[in-house]
C-alpha cells in the first residue's frame, strides 16, 4: 500500500494566511494609531547609529530630536481630536 501524497495547496494556503496574520499583528503592534512615532523611532535609531563616534553631539542631538518628535505627535493628536469634536458637534 502506497501512502497518499499530501496536497501542497492547503498547506501553502495555511502558510500564507499565517504569514499575513503575523505581518498584520506586527504592523498593528509597531505602527498602530501613531505611525509618526514609529518613524520617529526609526529616525532616532538611525541618527544614534550615525553619531556613534560623536558622543558629545549625540548627547545633545538625540534628546532634542526626541522632544521634537514627541511634540509633533502630541500636536497631531490634538488636531485630530479637535477635528473629531467638530464633526460630532456640527452634524
Describe the structure concisely for a colleague.
With 91 residues, the protein is mostly helical. The protein has helices spanning 8-30, 35-50, 55-89.
Q: Could you spell the SSE succession in H and E letters?
A: HHH
Give the C-alpha Rg: 23 Å
Arithmetic mean pLDDT: 87
**Please, how many domains?**
1
Model regions low in confidence, pLDDT < 50 over at least 5 residues: none
What's the number of helices?
3
* Distance between the amino and carboxyl termini: 72 Å
* Main β-sheet description: none
Which percent range describes the beta-strand content?
under 5%
Global geometry: flat
The percent range for helix content is over 70%
Beta strands, count: 0
Structural class: mainly alpha
Topology:
Elements: H1 8-30, H2 35-50, H3 55-89
Walkthrough of the structure:
With 91 residues, the protein is an all-alpha fold. Helices cover 81% and strands 0% of the residues. It has 3 helices and no strands.
